[in-house]
Write a structure and sequence with these properties.
This protein is of the alpha+beta class. Among the domains are: 116 residues, no CATH class; 114 residues, Immunoglobulins (Immunoglobulin-like), CATH 2.60.40.10. It contains 17 helices and 16 strands. The strands form five sheets. Strands 8, 9, 10, 12 and 14 form a five-stranded antiparallel sheet that branches. A four-stranded antiparallel sheet has the order 13-11-15-16, with no helix packed on it. A hairpin with an 8-residue loop joins β15 and β16. α5 crosses α9. The protein is elongated.
């Protein structure tokens, strides 16, 4: 006789406790009416997943976001602004154009702050609604849905695709498969072209590609991005979400009992089982779940949401739409599967009560940090100086005496005009008595900076010898200010040292 202790239905296969809001695991579902049809579907889901199409509220939202994100992605590079591309990350010239703003390498701090904002937003969305980003706006999800739409239009619905896959090869099957893959390849190449269009003038790219005139790195990124779209969205699909996505692995540490996730109301749905619409299922001791398995068939990652919260669930809501269709046909209350919290199901709370618990302390902290950092970024970019200056000393000649009883030092000023209009800059110096400045090339203290340009300006700074200064280094400040009638916010100031020789 085996000495192994019987497993508790409320525990997993390793006999460890499962959170209270989760329903029985898969191995215990035979006791609540798992059908052979469901077992076959779950077994098939371990291979190639062919999800069934579904219509509903959340599918409409997903389609809207697909259109919105792709219209932005494909159209943004074609928009012109001041006779140039409105959004262009010109790595060769080290300039980032964002409509009327020009960012230089010195502005890398803005990228760092933007990444911090994205991280806070990810934490916030996950704490509120789990993998909400994955289900609606993740590029993997969006492009997978687009590829599946092409597949459905060419091969047919789910049943037709399954039959086509199982059918022996014929001219018809080859024609359909070839058409689908040709469309996938063309869409992937178009996406790759658009991607490199953010880093090179997009209006020139089609001609450059046709004439094989792209640069080496342009070819590399064009082909790599196209191949990634084709392989990730066309072939790998749910495998990326299930096995490769790191977010799927650590999201569990950011959710709790009050996080809104796609949940199956096992209290209301169990015990599940088929029945007729004409019978009173409650009198027969059955729950609202008719065990139709549609929630599994429409799932893009092939999971059974009735098993409870799983890291593979991307929160797309497809199972919610499918279940609501069944509930409507059966005349039952909707939202057997819905977005809600584990605490709400376990404590039988209403949706309004569950929503009130969404704004718990850590969510409020995330919101506060997100608002503060976002406002700081907007304020900083709005108030940033359009003129930047770096001082470079002439190390070959620290200081020298010249005619007229003067001591002079030579500097080079690196002036950056981050505006899209030319600037006339006046250069001045302060910090020592009698100090004055002049251009080394023309003797004038003004310089004209073209729009979005960098100029290296040599200057000479002079101090009277009888000023009584001691030998060695003395700190000075060099200023660059826009002249009257121009953008008076364009100014820069930097410190350097003036050397007085012995």
């Amino acid at each position: 006789m085996s000495s192994e202790a019987p497993k508790d239905p409320a525990k997993g296969s390793d006999n460890q406790s499962v959170p209270a809001w989760q329903p029985p695991r898969l191995e215990t579902q035979a006791a609540v009416g798992a059908s052979p049809q469901l077992e076959k579907i779950l077994n098939d889901a371990s291979g190639k997943i062919i999800p069934r199409s579904v219509k509903g509220h959340f599918d409409t939202i997903r389609n809207a976001l697909v259109w919105l994100t792709q219209i932005l992605f494909f159209c943004l590079p074609w928009i012109q602004w001041n006779d140039r591309q409105a959004v262009l990350f010109d790595l060769g010239a080290r300039k980032f154009y964002l409509f009327g703003m020009v960012l230089w390498p010195q502005d890398i701090i803005y990228l760092a702050v933007l990444l911090i904002i994205c991280a806070y937003a990810l934490f916030l969305f996950t704490a509120i609604a789990g993998r909400l980003f994955c289900g609606y706006a993740c590029p993997q999800t969006v492009y997978t849905k687009i590829m599946m739409w092409f597949e459905q239009k060419i091969e047919g619905d789910r049943v037709a695709r399954i039959r086509l896959n199982e059918a022996p090869w014929s001219l018809r099957k080859f024609r359909i498969k070839f058409t689908k893959h040709a469309v996938w390849v063309l869409f992937s190449l178009w996406t790759g072209l658009t991607f490199i269009g953010y880093f090179a003038p997009i209006r020139e790219l089609p001609s450059d590609i046709l004439h094989f005139d792209l640069g080496t790195w342009q070819w590399v990124w064009f082909l790599m991005y196209s191949a990634a779209i084709l392989s990730f969205a066309g072939f790998l699909r749910e495998s990326i979400c299930r096995y490769a996505c790191p977010y799927a692995r650590f999201q569990s540490v950011m959710v709790d009992e009050d996080t809104f996730v796609v949940s199956y109301d096992y209290v209301r749905g169990e015990p599940r089982g088929p029945r007729s619409k004409k019978v009173d299922h409650k009198a027969e001791g059955k729950g609202d779940c008719v065990n139709c398995s549609l929630c599994v068939q429409v799932c893009p990652t092939g999971i059974d949401i009735r098993e409870g919260l799983q890291y593979m669930c991307i929160g797309c809501g497809a199972c919610v739409d499918a279940c609501n269709e069944v509930m409507d046909k059966m005349g039952y209350e909707r939202d057997l599967i819905r977005y809600t919290s584990g605490r709400a199901i376990n404590e039988r709370s209403t949706q309004d009560q569950a929503r009130k618990r969404m704004f718990r302390p850590r969510v409020l902290i995330y919101i506060s940090l997100l608002v503060i950092v976002s406002l700081a970024l907007v304020w900083s970019m709005a108030m940033r100086d359009t003129l930047k200056m770096n001082i470079i000393r002439d190390r070959g000649l620290l200081g020298r005496e010249v005619a007229g009883g003067l001591i002079e030092n030579v500097y080079r000023l690196q002036l950056v005009n981050a505006d899209e209009a030319p600037l006339t800059i006046q250069i001045s110096v302060e910090g020592l008595d009698g100090i004055k400045i002049m251009r080394a090339d023309n003797g004038r203290d003004t310089v004209v900076l073209p729009a979005s340009s960098t100029e290296l300006v040599p200057i000479v700074v002079q101090v009277p010898y009888e000023s009584g200064l001691s030998n060695g280094m003395h700190e000075i400040q060099i200023r660059a200010d826009a002249v009257e009638g121009q953008d008076r916010s364009a100014h820069a100031k930097d410190s350097s040292n003036f050397y007085i020789p012995k």
